[in-house]
From TrEMBL:
<dbReference type="InterPro" id="IPR011989">
    <property type="entry name" value="ARM-like"/>
</dbReference>
<dbReference type="GO" id="GO:0006417">
    <property type="term" value="P:regulation of translation"/>
</dbReference>
<dbReference type="GO" id="GO:0003729">
    <property type="term" value="F:mRNA binding"/>
</dbReference>
<dbReference type="InterPro" id="IPR040059">
    <property type="entry name" value="PUM3"/>
</dbReference>
<dbReference type="InterPro" id="IPR016024">
    <property type="entry name" value="ARM-type_fold"/>
</dbReference>
<protein>
    <submittedName>
        <fullName>ARM repeat-containing protein</fullName>
    </submittedName>
</protein>
<dbReference type="GO" id="GO:0005730">
    <property type="term" value="C:nucleolus"/>
</dbReference>
């Protein structure tokens, strides 16, 4: 009986390793969809945006350019779920007030999913802190559901 258990556990480990490898292969495929030229442009603009020794005007211009690149790819929602690109979305919220409403409209209908995701909590916190009272109310209504809108005071 013990050899069969070991055999099954070894087979299970091999199959798990195969699934993990397939997941990483799929992940690399997703990343390769982005043009390498775009990747380089993202990195350059992010480097300018994150460094404190550049002027505020240069940083704002860089963050605005980042927003246009991300928006052009239509991946702002996915970027907020990514381990590293979530910081770009936070910077867009912080330094580009003219784009806050656009970001909120893209997040509309996805607040519960973003809240349950492990990486996007920071982005939701930044969105909540930087939004006005009306936008905060709509975020809360979406999070709590229709009961909140019926029974709020």
């Amino acid at each position: 009986m013990i050899p069969t258990l070991l055999k099954n556990s070894e087979e299970r480990k091999r199959s798990d390793a195969g699934h993990i490898k397939a997941a990483f292969d799929d992940r690399n495929h997703i990343n390769s969809k982005l043009d390498p030229g775009h990747r380089l442009e993202f990195k350059k603009r992010w480097e300018i945006a994150r460094r404190k020794n550049f002027s505020s005007e240069e940083r704002n211009k860089s963050v605005t350019g980042l927003f246009e690149l991300v928006r052009g790819n239509g991946r702002l929602l996915e970027a907020s779920k990514n381990k590293y690109s979530k910081y770009i979305v936070c910077k867009l919220m912080k330094f580009c007030p003219e784009y806050r409403s656009k970001i909120l409209t893209e997040f509309k209908g996805q607040i519960k999913k973003l809240f349950l995701h492990t990486e996007s909590g920071i982005v939701l916190l930044e969105v909540y802190e930087l939004s006005n009272a009306m936008q905060r109310s709509s975020l809360l209504e979406e999070f709590y559901g229709p009961e909140f809108t019926l029974f709020k005071i």
